[in-house]
Amino acid sequence: MPLRTSSPRLPELQQKIRVHENNRFLELVFTAKVDDSRYLHWDQLSRRTPPNGWSHEEWWFALKMRRQSQMRRLPLRDKNGDGFGVNLTDEVLQLSEEIARRAGGMLGGGKDELNDATSDLYLVRSLVEESIRSSQLEGASTSRRVAVEMIESGRRPQSVSELMILNNYLAMREAKEAAQGPLTPETVLAWHRTLTMGTLDDPSQSGRLQTAADERVSVWADQVCVHLPPPATELPDRLNELCRFANGTPDDTPYLPPVVRAIITHFMFGYDHYFEDGNGRTARTAFYWSMLHNGYWIAEFATISAILRQAPGQYGDAYQYTEDDEGDLTYFVLHQLRVFKRALDELDEYIAHKREENSRVRRALSSASGLLNFRQAQMIEALSEGQENAITARRVASRYLVSEQTARNDLRYLEGLGLLARLPRSRPVIWVPIGDFADKLKELGFG
Fold first, then answer.
1. Which residue among 120, 142, 225, 346 is the one 20 to 30 A from 298 at the CA level?
2. CATH topology of 74-349 equal to that of 371-444?
3. Where are the domains of the chain?
4. Which CATH class is domain 371-444?
């Protein structure tokens, strides 16, 4: 929703305070102690009680003076040509360090939970989940269950919403493949082409920057324009600048933690609005690329869009706070760091659940003398718990990133054990659990 009030402009505020009481002005600039641990925007601060004896304007002025003295200026500019900046506050540094430790190293008690036999399954699960939630942020209305079934079965999308989700999934795969190389405008255009293929009213806009001949896209909330992006004529140069920034390293000046660089890259895609549609999905794809490019391998498995979708207003507020407060990116950086930490927390919970589930499967496998491989064991688990009621080779191949022939061999083996049966005349072949599936599991030692 739109901001209630814009923040006071610093030059006018400075003049106002100095005219009324010069000693008070000097105190606020040089000696006043102020708590800025929450990094509030004026829209938030103006609804809180200021420190004793202070007005809201004095409180804001003292905070602004402190922030300006610590601001790191970036080689990125707003639509007026002024530079963006960011403050590496204690919370920014603490969260950046925690995310670097967790997303570049260990997870959920040990990296072994995401190696060899299980990592491909977790990766597909997270890519599917991120694709669904990111597309839903942009208006896709397909349910999660239907979207998962579509991607895992490999069937063709039946609606624009389903196509948005599939496109998002494919673009995320492309971003992962591109993570070893630099970000280029051509890479960005290719992602957008994949993200919007078959979903735009004007197909010619897919994979193309807006031009001066296009009606410039803007962002609205409650019938109020909350963001008018830079002129379309500037977009090629701005995209080149952004790619140079995104390709930066920790040796660059000013220093930025890699996760902060990834978040700012995300922000600039949303701020510049390069395309007629799909800017948000492109921004999140670029963030995903940046995290992997900088070695945060666990970013493959974290789902941020699900959290953003729970509170989209906070996401929009973070954009507005930055633009309203003279290009101060700290608001957006803090918001995204908190979101990504939550995504890692949820991933830890998921891994703990899967660890217990896999433990049950391993115990069953042990009692059955190792009759099944891990894919077959997890298929049995899903069928026995009612998570699946039918399965195809294509779906198994998509879920575990194996060939369809390997998937067919897995299913034929389960059929040979008497656990699955083929539906007559189904093309492609569909396998279903036999009628006395639970009894057969116990007979084989899986119950």
1. 142
2. no
3. 10-70, 74-349, 371-444
4. mainly alpha
User: Of 147-156, 375-384, 438-447, which has the strongest mean pLDDT?
Assistant: 375-384
pTM for this prediction: 0.81
Smallest CA-to-CA distance from 261 within 292, 231, 230 is with 292
| Residue 157 backbone dihedrals phi, psi, to 5 degrees | -60, 145
Residue 115 has what pLDDT? 45
Q: Which CATH class is domain 74-349?
A: mainly alpha
User: Mind listing the pLDDT tens digit for each residue in 254-279?
Assistant: 999 999 999 999 999 999 999 999 99
Express as a percent the part of the chain with pLDDT over 90: 54
Q: For position 171, what pLDDT does the model report?
A: 94
Tokens describing residue 396: 């198994």
Instruction: Say how far apart CA 387 and CA 371 lie, in whole Å.
Output: 22
